Amino acid sequence: MNNNKEKNDKKDKKDFWDISKIVVTLLFTTIGGAIGGTFTGLTNYYFRQQELYIKRVETVEKFMPYLIGEVNGTPIPNNQSAKENTIIVIAAIGDEELAINLAKLNPSKASILALRSIALKSIHPDAVSAIGEIGKNAQSDLKEDAILKLKNIIDQLDKSSKKADILKMAQTNLKELTKEAEKEYKDPKKSKTTTVTWAIVIGSDTNLAGAQDEQKRAKTKTFGKGEIIIYERQGWYATVVQGIDQDNKVKTLNFWQKEFRPSSFMIDFNDWCKNPSEDKEDGYFKCE
Fold it and tell me: Model pTM greater than 0.85?
C-alpha cells in the first residue's frame, strides 16, 4: 500500500510530458494483464475494466487544465503543444469521441494536428470530419492548415479496403475546403463586405452549472462594454464575451487572456454560432 502511495506521489510530481507516457503505458499494461483464461481470470478482467474506466475519468480530469492553457491559474508555457498532447492522450486512453469533441470546441492548429494523429492511428472517420468542420468555420490561415492536414492524411493512408471509407471522407472534405478557399481568394471583395461580429470565447464546460460559475466569475472582470453570455453548441456550454468594441478587439482579447484565461480566443460569431435561438432556455442560448 505504501509503495503504491509513493508511486502515485512521484507520478503527481511529473511534468505534463512524463504523465502522458505513464497514462498510455498504464492503459495498455492494464488491458494486457486483464485478459486471462479461467473463471478467476475473467472476474479479474471485469474488475480491471472497471478500474480502467475510473482511471480514464481521473486522467481526463487531470489533463483538462492543459487544454485550457493554465494550471491553478498559472499559464502553461508552450500551451499549443500542451493542447495537442492533451487531446492525443485523452484519445489514447480510449475516449476518442471526447478527444474529437474537445478539438472541435477548441479550434486551433494544435487541435487539427491532434485530429490528424487520431485519424491516422485509429482510422477514425469522425476525426477527419472534425478537421473539415474546423476548416469550414475558420479564417484563411486555419483553413489552409486544415487543407494541408487532410492532404497529409490522404497521402499517409494506403488504398486498402479497410481504409476506403475514411479515405473517401478525407478526399470529400479536402475538395470542399479547397473550393471554399479558392472562392475566397478569387473574390476578396466579398469577404471584405461581409459583416463580421467579433466575440471572444473565454470558457467551455460540459454542464450548464459549470458555465454559469464561469459567467459569474467573468462578470467581476468586465472590460469595456462586453456582455457575458452562455451558448450551448455541439453539446458544450461556452462562455462568450459579446458586444465588444470592434476597433479595440485585440486589446480586449489581450485583457481576457491575461486576466481570465490564457486560452481565450476570438471568433467570428456569425460563423461560430449558426442561427442562435431568440429566447434564453434556462439561462443560455442555443446555436444550431
Answer: no
